Amino acid sequence: MTKSAQLATLTLEDGTVFEGTIFGAPKSTSGEVVFNTGMVGYPETLTDPSYRGQILVMTYPLVGNYGVPPTSFGDKLLVSSNSKGANEDCETESEWESALPKFFESDRIQIQALIVSEESESFSHWNSIESLDAWLKRFAVPGLFGIDTRKLTKILREHGTMLGKIEIGKEKVKYYNPDVEDLISKVTPAKVEKYGSGKKRVLLIDCGCKKSIITNLLQRNVSVLRVPYDYEIEKEDYDGVLISNGPGNPVVYKQLVASAKKLIQKQVPTLGICMGHQILSLAAGAKTYKLKYGHRSQNQPVKEVDSNKCYVTSQNHSFAVDTKSLPRGWQPWFENLNDYSNEGVRHEKLPFRSVQFHPEAMPGPVDSDFIFDEFLKDLK
């Protein structure tokens, strides 16, 4: 331990205390303590907006050993500032690639704090430019290392996800519960943005959308109109709608559910991903519930209900749709092979479908990227 090392404590809401050492930004914080069992992909994971409000525990001990890639967004940001096209739009592939983060899923670290078994002070990778510690400092996000992450994960598995707080010295903070807050308002874009020049237009309701969802759409030669989650979508023209992933408790977002109900009434082809899956299901009349400790990894096995085909998927969510609550006309599409929770729904006749997992992966396997093709088939 260096002379400048600062000790800190992680206190769970059940009173369990872990002592460790601060790296990254030296500040106290609080949030919901969750764990991820992925072995790689921390640059993508930490920038996933779905982690907003959460203290992330990485179960794999070697985190940070390949450093962090460049955060440059290219020479200029070629997106329109509003739907009237005040600025130049992204039309060519090189333009939209410049307008999106190249190696990350958003423009900043989204987690409240990071907990690892051991801080990797040295790093090695052809594309790395800085350490995990330096990256966390740059975005004012604290990290904690030197605690038994295996023991912590077992506690979270047995007890369930808990609130927690990281405190340095005598500095005290209150527990923070992200499930009761409108977290999407913190990660949704402030303006409308346009990408691509394909003939078919997808309206993307951005609830905290991962960059790779947009990339997958653009690679399939469609144009994308990216709008804030509370945008009046009736004023735009589009061929289909994608409701993205995002953080928080789906029942908080009643206005978003109301918008999804209008899409169902108008029979607009719609795809929901993660939070979008939960929102579309609520709009259809189903119910959601909180999982004991959620699904966060790149190795979640799911089965397509009708075909029994299995896929390995990337996931990050706390809530799930209650399959038994699906109304008439809606059917389960996928189920999780670990706990048999719902992983997707679709309508028997109408162009509505959604998945709880991430077909865009990043990080993770791309077994299920065909979901985008299934959605785009519905666009007439």
Mean pLDDT: 92
Strand order of the largest sheet: 10-12-11-13-14-19-18-17-15-16
Query: What is the H-and-E element order?
Result: EEEHEEHEEHEHEHEEHEEHEHEEEEEH
Question: CATH H level of the largest domain: which superfamily?
Answer: Class I glutamine amidotransferase (GATase) domain
End-to-end gap: 62 Å
Number of strands: 19
Morphology call: globular
CATH architecture of the largest domain: 3-Layer(aba) Sandwich
What helical percentage do the residues reach?
A: 10-25%
Number of helices: 9
Q: Would you state the CATH class of the largest domain?
A: Alpha Beta
Structural class designation: alpha/beta
Share of β-strand residues? 25-35%
Number of structural units classed as domains: 2
- Based on CA atoms alone, the radius of gyration comes out at 20 Å
Largest sheet: 10 strands, mixed
Which fold name corresponds to the CATH topology of the largest domain? Rossmann fold
Runs in which pLDDT lies below 50 for 5 or more consecutive residues are 73-88
